[in-house]
Amino acid sequence: MAGTGTAVGPKTTVDCYDFWDRVFRRAGTIDYTEGYYRGDPTVPYEQAQHDQVCYLLDEVGCRAGSRVLDVGCGNGRLLEKVRRRGGEGIGVTISPAQARYCRARGLDVRLLSYRDVGEEWTGRFDAVVANGSIEHFVQAADALAGRADAIYEEMFAFFHRVIDPRSPSRRVVNTTIHFDNINVTPGAALRSPWSLRWFSDEFHCALLVRGFGGYYPTPGQLERCARPFFRLVAGRDATRDYHWTSEEWLRRGRRSLLSARLWGRLLPFLLRHPLYGARMMFLLNVARTWNWQFRGERPPMTHLWQTWDWMEPQRSAAVEAGPSGPPAGLTGSSRRAAGDGAAAADLGAGEVTGDRLTPPAPG
Ligand SMILES: C[S@@+](CC[C@H](N)C(=O)[O-])C[C@H]1O[C@@H](n2cnc3c(N)ncnc32)[C@H](O)[C@@H]1O
Prior knowledge:
Layout: H1 10-23, H2 45-59, E1 67-71, H3 77-84, E2 88-93, H4 96-104, E3 108-111, E4 127-131, H5 140-144, H6 148-162, E5 171-179, H7 186-189, H8 201-212, H9 221-226, E6 230-237, H10 239-256, H11 260-272, H12 274-286, H13 289-292, E7 301-310, H14 313-321, H15 332-339, H16 342-345
Parallel strand pairs: 1-2, 1-4, 2-3, 4-5
Antiparallel strand pairs: 5-7, 6-7
Helix pairs in contact: 1-11, 8-12, 11-12
């Protein structure tokens, strides 16, 4: 990693989910993304989580017979719902603990990076979901070396390739944290957090890079990289949803610190990864870096839900060549200006980029 001497990347991501597995999943919390609160923070956590997955499946028109690829499937909660709708879901994850957990529940989950999916999956799916996984695909060192766009383009090319051109759905939906009201360079995020001013933006970002393994896009970056393959048809600012979810995670995490069973599960991990484990406990409970991302009037990060339509290759080429490309992303401030207030935190007018299409009704 560009001069850090620290391995940050997929191994960090694998360790991080091993850690989550011990802290959260075995304590009963299996969701690793935000819920859907529709502007109401009093919605119970489990309901919000359920509604978020339903929203994503509705966006891609998942119904009986739908073939859905879940890229970064976590503990398989979305795949469970695909199955309940009578669809066929396949998940990929790079976490062995998640793959084992999902398979034990009869889900078709492969321990595989999406980058290693072979030609046998070409044209096999109606839709692709990436619910909170894109944040791991680019590393800070990639961003520093100017490789981020190429990685996102390759990702969209992959999504395009695995979707069946004859499918009536042909959609991708993703939920992704973006850098927004913050000015941090990848070089700073790669520095040791302890060499930075404590609790500064750089300090939190350096902790995130070391804790989770990954780097975020900026608003508009995914639209630019999707250009030859997909058209953005819907977008929603879900920053407040992530804020409310992460505050609930913090409450649950702090409660579980009092549990002897948690420490029994965590101890073998802490013995194997003492530095990582100590840093993660500091990140979560002392610096509260995860929560910092979504707190305040102008949070440093913006969380976006985006729905994309597959484009015919000839149309892709035309769009690429033509003077007016697909709609550019709104900036964080214009999205918030449009999206202030409870109703607008929902699928508010002004947050939708491009024409909103009605997906086929779920089965
Ligand atoms: C924040 S979790 C989200 C999990 C799940 N989608 C959910 O909503 O609970 C990110 C997921 O991305 C997966 N992931 C990270 N990099 C990946 C890659 N290159 N290929 C496939 N999955 C990856 C992780 O293993 C993890 O399952």
